[in-house]
Amino acid sequence: MALPPSPQDVEPAAPSRRELNKAATRQAITDSALELLRSKGPGNFTVEDIADAAGISRRTFFNYFGSTDAALASIVHGFLDNAIQQLRLRPAEEPMLESAQAALMALADPKAVAPLAELFTLTQQSPLMSHTELEAWDHCRTQVFTIARERLAGTPGEQDELYVHALAGSIMSCGKAAMEVWFSRRGPDLTPGSLAELRQLLIDAMALLGAGFNTTASPSATRSS
């Protein structure tokens, strides 16, 4: 008599047609919002413009997003959610900062950071859009906090709330710092080489944090020596 398959061997159920349609609609909205941002600039298009470009009704748009800025911020959410997913796959016993660096390295294709980079370059002059992006980063910080607290539970001296909050906040701050340094160097350059540099800066920022901001031990210092 054959034994039943173990949980690890059971493949997850394929998404339903309804789920696929919803995902496609959401992506169409995001793509349309980004295209309008490219052509018109921040603040110069409406929900109706996005809906028309995506081939949906205004009501359908609001089933997915609450504003034009929220539709664009979903690009940030998408990248950060992928990074969080990779972070959750790391071994529970691995130091948190090593896990964060490995999670970013797992996003091996520089194209993975392309939408995030483009949105960053296109919204530098929009205070409202910058605020929406900050909310996305803060949402990610909350998830990092949860993962860190789960991992460090029961670890002597490291389950303190201040420690976990500071750790999660530092990881997010380093990520944002990498974006700012990249933009100061490259501006609107979205070539493969520029995107590869952004990805490396994100990884280096985590390593710098792990080294206690000892510049002589940072990857950047090593490469420049």
Automatic annotation (TrEMBL):
Residues in the DNA-binding region annotation: 46-65
A Pfam family of this chain: TetR_N
Keyword Chloroplast annotated: no
Alphabetical keyword list: DNA-binding, Transcription, Transcription regulation
DNA-binding in keyword set: yes
Transmembrane segments: none
Domain HTH tetR-type residues, every copy: 23-83
Protein's recorded name: Regulatory protein, TetR family
Organism of origin: Arthrobacter liuii
